[in-house]
Amino acid sequence: MTESSYRIQGATGEWEVVIGLEVHAQVTSNAKLFSGAATAFGAEPNTQVSLVDAAMPGMLPVPNMECIRQAVRTGMAIDAEINRWSRFDRKNYFYADLPQGYQISQLYHPLVGEGAIEISPDDRNPDATKTIGVERIHVEQDAGKLMHDQHPTRSYVDLNRSGVALMEIVSRPDMRSPAEAGAYLRKLRAILRYVGSCDGNMEEGSMRADVNVSVRKPGDDLGTRTETKNVNSVRFVMAAIEYEAKRQVELIEDGGRVVQETRLFNVESGTTRSMRSKEDAHDYRYFPDPDLLPLELDEAFLAACRASLPELPDAKRKRYEALGISAYQADVLTAEVEAARWFDALLEAGAKPVAAANWTTSELFGALNRGGHDIAQSPVSPAQAAELLALVADGTLSGSLAKQVFEVMLETGDAPAKIVEDRGLKQTSDTGAIEAVIAEVIARNPNQLAQYRGGKETLFGFFVGQTMKAMGGKANPAVVNDLLKKALS
After folding, report:
1. What is the pLDDT of residues 311-364, one digit of tens each?
2. Cα–Cα dist 312/439, whole Å
3. What count of other Cβ atoms lies within 10 Å of the Cβ of residue 161?
């Protein structure tokens, strides 16, 4: 789906959707942004709270430089401007799970400036790309969590997340369809996971998106936007955009007007509802945090961050394509960092790139999907897969025998060579044995022989299949083809 093809058809004509995303990504670190409290997911409520997180009097925040490093590395991964001088601000608002009465964030001087992310909105055509601008990445602390289901008349507060480091990654309003927003979120998640700055686990809340949507007639000025908060999956982001855009079009065409507000997405109904009117920045009374000095980054720190970056998805995809792998397969193989690492290990084990890509994207991914597993749970290692592909390449196994061996590998975890030896699955190229079977097959099928010699050449495949079946799939297909052509002619 391209920018020009996605339009909402209303009673007064076509409407264009304008989308921007603010993604909150939890920084990968063992401690919080301004304290030494742990950040592990799933701990008992209020067991990972320091005196700083609880805003006890006299407690001063100290920046965790690992969190700063991870944010800088993320900015570098999207070719963004890194601001050597940045500052923390206090964003003042009352919320029951925010003990300080303010959030430490970065409004005026963020750590990371403008960057860009290239997306492929159409899965069927990964070469059709679009660049989405990133306005900024700033670092801030998360709030705690209110629990409303623990008591019939009271709400409880869990401060385990209070003070956890977040990167807020703010896009430009460059997206024009749910498909583009979905592609952007998937690509951003992939980059974060490659860099290692966020695990991207949306179900656990370590990555969530605020979705800004407005509509306009093509060519008009930007319309009034709404912000749908804390959407926690790519599918839900796309659904929220579709619903909200249609709601706004219908509202305007019925004579109403869109108000700038914060909304919530209901995952069960696929609808959004109003939460509160949208406050402007001055309502938060931002001012520089007096307890924190500005961050000043030197060249040695930046150089170390840059040197620590891995090969990123776009570079890896181009490298795979240079090895002869199709653009589609390269896109599939680089979409998740675990799959890319597994495939790199397969190549390092000696597998031929094109054959390895074909086998990985069809046989391995197919088997893992059927079993409900991801590649990290694969019972077949890259070294074992390389051994299996080598047995095919040297003629020990045919394609059909390789499938049988692979099924046994999935069940037992045994090495391919052992399975071939134990089960007698070695492919045969013995011309004498194959010729004898061919003679029997021809003798059993005189009608098909007559039709073939009468010009129905499609029956050649029938004779190949019968021969392979008679030999239990162990005959070398190339040898079978050559000997059959001679025998049938």
Report:
1. 999 999 999 999 999 999 999 999 999 999 999 999 999 999 999 999 999 999
2. 57
3. 21
For residues 77 and 313, is the Cβ–Cβ distance under 8 A? no
The residues spanned by each domain of the chain are 8-304, 311-423, 431-488
Beta strand residue intervals within 217-316, DSSP E: 226-231, 261-266, 271-277, 287-288, 295-296
pLDDT at 436: 86
Going by the DSSP 8-state scheme, the letter that residue 428 receives in this structure is B
Measured between alpha carbons, how far is 302 from 136 in angstroms, rounded to an integer?
18
Q: pLDDT tier at 3 (50, 70, 90 boundaries)?
A: very low
CA distance 416 to 379: 13
| Residue type at 309 in one-letter notation | L
Q: Which residue has the tokens 């108000």?
A: 259
The per-residue pLDDT of the chain, averaged, comes to 92
Distance CA 458, CA 435 (A): 21
List pLDDT tens digits, range 103-161: 999 999 999 999 999 998 887 777 788 999 999 999 999 999 999 998 999 999 999 99
Q: Could you give the CA distance from residue 351 to residue 233 in angstroms, rounded to a whole number? A: 35
Copy the structure tokens of residue 23.
Answer: 């993604």
**d(C-alpha 351, C-alpha 348), whole Å:** 7
Query: What is residue 278's DSSP assignment?
Result: P
The residues that bridge with 165 in the sheet, in sequence order, are: 141
CA–CA dist 355, 385 (Å, integer):
11
Backbone angles phi, psi at 486, to 5 degrees: -65, -45
Question: Beta strands 130-141 and 89-92: pairing type?
Answer: unpaired
Residue 478 has pLDDT above 80, yes or no: no
Average confidence (pLDDT) over 407-426: 88
- Between CA 273 and CA 255 the distance in angstroms is 19
Is 3.30.360.10 the CATH number for 431-488? no
Whole-angstrom CA distances from 329 to 189, 313, 353 are: 19, 13, 11
First CA to last CA distance, the chain: 52
Block residue for tokens 């009673």: 11
Exposure string over 408-430, b if 16+ CB within 10 A, otherwise e: bbbeeeebbbebbeeeebebeee
Per-residue confidence (pLDDT) for residue 1, from 0 to 100: 41
Task: State whether residue 33 is helix, strand or coil.
Answer: coil
Q: Please tell me the least confidently modeled range out of 104-118, 128-142, 390-404, 419-433.
A: 419-433
Helix (H, G, I), strand (E, B) or coil at 24: strand
* Residue (of 394, 376, 404) closest to 468 by Cα position: 404
pLDDT at 246 over 90: yes
**Which helix (H) or strand (E) covers residue 389, if one does?**
helix 382-393
